[in-house]
Amino acid sequence: MTAEKVRIGILTVSDRASRGEYKDEGGPAIEAELGRILATHWEPVARMIPDEQPLIEQALEDLCDREGCCLVVTTGGTGPALRDITPEATEAVCDKVLDGFGEQMRAVSLKVVPTAILSRQIAGVRGQSLIINLPGKPSAIADCLQAVFPAVPYCIDLIGGPYLETHPEVCQAFRPKHARKPGA
Asked: Is residue 171 part of a domain?
């Protein structure tokens, strides 16, 4: 087991929630779902900001570069509305975009609602951090995290992050047979 402190960023992007006009349900839903999935002890680093691209970029950079989050999960701002710019901000700060995450999340969501094709979630790597955009609806957050999380621990291994373990009865993380647990 690594002695490294595991920090995970949770970024809610919402004009109304950031002004206190609307209760943030997305951020708490992410934290609850990660709590169900992860066996590794982790610390949430939560932020809430309005739908402003410079603010989103700054928050993502801060969570990755200064707060040391190996994973940053966003909620909100992924639709087609004019103010929905979370994917653009995410792409702007990432070194690499990982298209498969968005494809998988939309495929799973399409089984539930036909408007999932309007969702523009993406994921990418910034340094040693994985950033994943999720929708704002709590049930969609759970569906999307469950759909992509089997690949998350190995992705974080590949970018030099901490070794994450899941509760296999909730989410079976996949690692190739040659991938070894540190210290094993």
From this structure: no
Instruction: Give pLDDT tens digits along the chain (184 positions).
Output: 345 689 999 999 999 998 989 899 999 999 999 999 999 999 999 999 999 999 999 999 999 999 999 999 999 999 999 999 999 999 999 999 999 999 999 999 999 999 999 999 999 999 999 999 999 999 999 999 999 999 999 999 999 999 999 999 999 999 998 877 776 5
Contact 34, 165 (CB under 8 A): no
DSSP 8-state code for residue 36: H
pTM > 0.85: yes
Range of the domain at 115: 7-158
Burial environment of residue 31 by CB neighbours within 10 A (0 to 12, 13 to 18, 19 or more):
middle
Is residue 46 a part of any domain in this protein?
Answer: yes
Whether 170 is in a domain gets the answer no
Domain count across the chain = 1
